[in-house]
């Protein structure tokens, strides 16, 4: 597994990193800031588990958790002390899989990593999308917002023209919308989503591919 350890002091993680590597895992220690997670979210999705070090103050850990929870990656907190019931409740609300004591044995670490493997989200290569890497025009963003707001409903061309251009469907608007949809689909594919992001069903209309919805949702959160 590829494991990330977020810490305030990389040198302080040497022994812990060695123990994880002893269990045959790739370990990457970083002192990344919360803002960096927002800017480089695709990088953090590459890891199978993320561990927050005890070197990070508890209140700051919660700020990290709030941002990391979006990735659905198994999360762990390291702690010198046994967490209180209040701390457990708060951390579990943010998606923490478990707490790791500093004196945890190799068997305990092995069990928790197995737990992370069982809880790791399944994501095929053709489902990935670098949302922040896609440059959208205001019109394209508006179109995605409309499609995202009706995930289970096909929108016919007539309704799309009405919602986006605030006019009735005309030959000119129809041509303009078709061109915009085609261009947007290409951008989505270039961004890494290899399927048809905006699906067109004959006689029904357009809707977003279900597997695309979580990524588009990131644009509006």
From TrEMBL:
GO MF annotation, one: DNA binding
Pfam families assigned: Trans_reg_C (PF00486)
Residue ranges annotated for the OmpR/PhoB-type domain, each copy included: 133-208
Keyword terms of this UniProt record: DNA-binding, Transcription, Transcription regulation
Protein name per UniProt: Helix-turn-helix domain-containing protein
GO biological process, one term: phosphorelay signal transduction system
UniProt keyword Calcium present: no
Species of the source: Enterococcus faecalis (Streptococcus faecalis)
Highest taxon above the source species: Bacteria
